[in-house]
Amino acid sequence: MLSDITLGQFFPRKSVMHRADPRLKICLTVFAIVLIFAAGNFVSLALAVAYIGLGMALSKIPLKMYMKSLKPILFLVVFTAVLNVFYGTGEPLWQWGFLKVTKNGLLNCAFVSIRIIVLILASSVLTFTTSPTQLTDALERLLRPLSKLHVPVHEFAMMMTIALRFVPLLLEETEKIMSAQKARGADMESGGLIQRIKALIPVLIPLFVSAFRRAYDLATAMESRCYHGGEGRTKMKVLRFGGGDWLIAGSAVLALAAFIVLNVVFPPAIVR
Amino acid sequence: MSETILETKNLTYQYGIGTPFEKTAVEDVSISIEKGEFLGVIGHTGSGKSTLIQMLNGLIRPTSGQVLLDGQDIWAEPKKIRAVRFRVGMVFQYPEYQLFEETVLKDIVFGPKNMGLSDEEALARAKEAAAFTGLKEELWEKSPFELSGGEKRRAAIAGVIAMDPDVLILDEPTAGLDPRGRDVLLAQITQYHKKRQNTVMLVSHSMEDIGRTADRLLVMNQSRCAMLAPTKEVFSQSAKLEQMGLRVPQITKIVQELGALGCPVDPSTLTVDDALKQLLPYLKQKLPRKEAGSDAV
Ligand SMILES: Nc1ncnc2c1ncn2[C@@H]1O[C@H](COP(=O)(O)OP(=O)(O)OP(=O)(O)O)[C@@H](O)[C@H]1O
Ligand SMILES: [Mg+2]
Question: How many Å apart are CA A120 and CA B14, to the nearest integer?
Answer without folding.
Answer: 29
